[in-house]
Structure to design on (564 residues):
């Protein structure tokens, strides 16, 4: 075999007609109609990920509009005329390709601007194809603006880029933009199988599916991987060969790993992961596969008909359907969030193996936590048991000389007992935040009472729900403690919500303000003014309420101070 004539498959099977460009039906429809109707724009911008056909589409447009044998009802280049052949061989002087990644300066653009005034030598249009146009400098873009807005009629600009967000809006507004899509797996698998058949490459469908998954919608990447796999195997290419070539982990073992994690089997999970690692699997790729499988399991729960897709390998269908039976959407959602966060941490870690193992341990502990719905059921069960205990205790306190029959009647919710229970429930209602805090003093929780009184700011309060700012409290269990105790004392569930709002005040601050206002009011009483004038240098220190059996009287402590 003459190795000098060998051409890589990605170049050999580059589309030479619009009909060979797969997965870009919208672009083909618009461009071909514009060609047939002779309504071509002066500038096109083609954007999309690598390997989906941006540069190829630009060359097809250049060949078609310059084709010497193009008929009015046709939009495909003939491929036989001098223009088509010279463009294919990259020898046409009127089709200028420029790589903006290597020619980013304003001088390169000025060269284009100076040449646009000259008419094409052999073709109908002079065409500039600028690849990776986002790499041009700011000055280069500015220099191009005027020419791009009003080019001569014989000039066409075709831009291609993978990062359209880096292109100034002034350039975007002067172009017709086309977003080229990732090619879906079904079309890409068919395309790769056709190329394999033409090249007489024996490859299994599961192996092609792995290649396509690794290509992530890029046609060029998929063909290049097929070319690489051909060189790695002289016989039929199986999925195991692709796994070894790409450093992937066995997909079946990834399913087993996720299954072990969901079952909370820590030792077995870490042993399997270390086995995958020792076989050459990349930690990051393992976690990417885990994310894809978690998404697939969620799809099965929402859309079971996805299992009928013929392009999904049987192994994945069987394991996916089996695992999804024992999982809920909420469980998968929580698992996805933790797994995604772990994947981000792993990207930045200098210790991939250790980080990956710690993430797996975290996922195992997460899988052992019951879902919120189960926790709510348990809380309700505890509340019901507590309410029953309170009723029995009250009944036992009220029973003195009653007979066993009367005790039975009370436990069966007699009318009088229901009135006592209602009365007790009314007594447990908390009508203000101050009453809420006083409960902790009443039930002898002095530390929590002090923190609530001095350090916690009330934002809002209603029966069963209180919104607080307790950023000054250095206790991570603070909210849980007060919620548990107040729910226990009142016989109902309370919501204690943390807020970063700083507009509220603590009870201590409210009392200081109240005391100050009361002192100001007292100082204006004629009797008080007379007393203070009699004892110069004196002032009112505090006001207290003193109770007796008849009524409540205000007692004022007047402290005599020396004049300063």
């Amino acid at each position: 075999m003459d190795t000098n004539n060998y051409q890589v498959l990605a170049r050999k099977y580059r589309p030479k007609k619009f009909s060979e460009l797969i997965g870009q039906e919208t672009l083909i429809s618009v461009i071909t109609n514009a060609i047939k109707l002779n309504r071509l724009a002066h500038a096109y911008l083609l954007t999309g990920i690598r390997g989906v056909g941006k540069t190829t589409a630009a060359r097809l447009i250049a060949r078609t509009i310059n084709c010497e044998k193009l008929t009015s009802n046709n939009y495909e280049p003939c491929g036989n005329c001098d223009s088509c052949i010279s463009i294919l061989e990259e020898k046409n002087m009127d089709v200028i390709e420029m790589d903006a990644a290597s020619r980013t300066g304003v001088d390169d653009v000025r060269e284009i601007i100076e040449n646009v005034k000259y008419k094409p030598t052999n073709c109908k249009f002079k065409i500039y194809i600028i690849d990776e146009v986002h790499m041009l400098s700011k000055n280069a873009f500015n220099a191009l603006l005027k020419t791009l807005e009003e080019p001569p009629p014989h000039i066409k600009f075709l831009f291609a880029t993978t990062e359209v967000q880096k292109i100034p809006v002034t350039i975007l507004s002067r172009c017709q933009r086309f977003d080229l899509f990732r090619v879906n797996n079904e079309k890409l698998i068919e395309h790769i199988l056709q190329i394999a058949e033409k090249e007489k490459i024996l490859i299994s469908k599961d192996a092609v599916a792995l290649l396509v998954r690794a290509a992530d919608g890029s046609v060029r990447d998929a063909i290049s991987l097929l070319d690489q796999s051909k060189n790695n195997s002289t016989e039929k290419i199986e999925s195991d060969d692709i796994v070894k070539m790409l450093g992937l982990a066995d997909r079946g073992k990834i399913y087993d790993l996720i299954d072990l994690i969901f079952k909370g089997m820590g030792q077995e999970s870490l042993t399997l992961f270390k086995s995958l690692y020792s076989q050459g699997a990349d930690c990051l790729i393992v976690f990417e596969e885990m994310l894809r499988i978690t998404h697939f399991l969620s799809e099965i729960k929402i859309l079971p008909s996805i299992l009928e897709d013929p392009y999904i390998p049987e192994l994945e269908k069987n394991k996916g359907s089996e695992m999804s039976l024992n999982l809920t959407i909420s469980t998968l959602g929580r698992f996805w969030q933790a797994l995604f966060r772990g994947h981000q941490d792993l990207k930045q870690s200098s210790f991939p193996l250790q980080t990956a193992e710690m993430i797996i341990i975290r996922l195992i502990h997460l899988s052992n936590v019951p879902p919120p719905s189960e926790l709510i059921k348990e809380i309700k069960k505890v509340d019901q048991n507590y309410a029953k205990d309170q009723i029995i205790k009250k009944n036992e306190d009220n029973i003195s000389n009653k007979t066993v029959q009367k005790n039975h009647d009370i436990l069966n919710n007699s009318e009088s007992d229901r009135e006592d229970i209602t009365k007790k429930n009314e007594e447990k209602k908390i009508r203000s935040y101050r009453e809420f805090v006083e409960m902790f003093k009443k039930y002898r929780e002095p530390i929590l009472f002090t923190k609530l009184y001095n350090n916690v700011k009330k934002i809002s309060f209603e029966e069963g729900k209180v919104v607080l700012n307790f950023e000054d409290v250095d206790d991570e269990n603070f909210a849980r403690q007060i919620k548990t105790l107040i729910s226990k004392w009142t016989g109902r569930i309370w919501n204690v919500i943390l807020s970063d709002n700083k507009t509220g005040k603590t009870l201590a601050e409210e009392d200081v303000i109240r005391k100050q206002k009361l002192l100001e009011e007292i100082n204006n009483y004629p009797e008080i003014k007379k007393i203070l004038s009699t004892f110069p240098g004196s002032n009112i220190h505090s006001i207290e309420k003193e109770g007796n059996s008849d009524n409540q009287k205000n007692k004022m402590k007047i402290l005599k101070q020396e004049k300063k």
In short: Confidence is low (pLDDT under 50) at residues 414-427, 547-564. Residues 48 and 162 are 5 Å apart (CA to CA). Strands lie at 43-47, 95-99, 126-131, 155-161, 176-179, 457-462, 465-469, 495-498, 539-547, 552-559.
